[in-house]
C-alpha cells in the first residue's frame, strides 16, 4: 500500500506457520529505510561493516536493492535503494513476468556488489536484477 509516489509504504502478506514470538511470528516483519542512491547504500554498508555489523540477507528485489539486518532484539531492519532501470518503474515490475517467476528476488554478495560501485560501474548496471537483463 502507498499514498504517494513511493512504491510501497506498507506491505501486507499472508504466511503459513507463524509462531508466537520468533523470526516467523505474526506482526511487523521489518521496518525499511530508503537511501537516496546505491552510493549511499554502499557507504552505509561499509560503515556498518567497520563496526562489525553484517546483513543477514542481501537481495535484489527488482524495485529495490536491499540489505537486511537484525537489531539486538531480533527485529529486522531493511536498508534499501530504489532501482531506476526497469521500464515503467516499480508498478510495472510488479506486473512483470520476472516478478511472477520470482517475487522475492535474487540474493547477492554485498562485498562484490559494492566493489563494482566503488570501481565506477554505472548504477543502472549494478542495480539490474540479472533476470531482467
From TrEMBL:
**UniProt-listed InterPro entries:** Glyas_Bleomycin-R_OHBP_Dase, Glyas_Fos-R_dOase_dom, VOC_core
Specify the domain of life of the species encoding this protein. Bacteria
Q: Where in the numbering of this chain does the VOC domain appear? A: 1-82
- Pfam families reported for this sequence: Glyoxalase
Output the SUPFAM superfamilies linked to this UniProt entry: Glyoxalase/Bleomycin resistance protein/Dihydroxybiphenyl dioxygenase
Name the record gives this protein: VOC domain-containing protein
Query: What organism, scientifically named, is this protein from?
Result: Croceicoccus pelagius
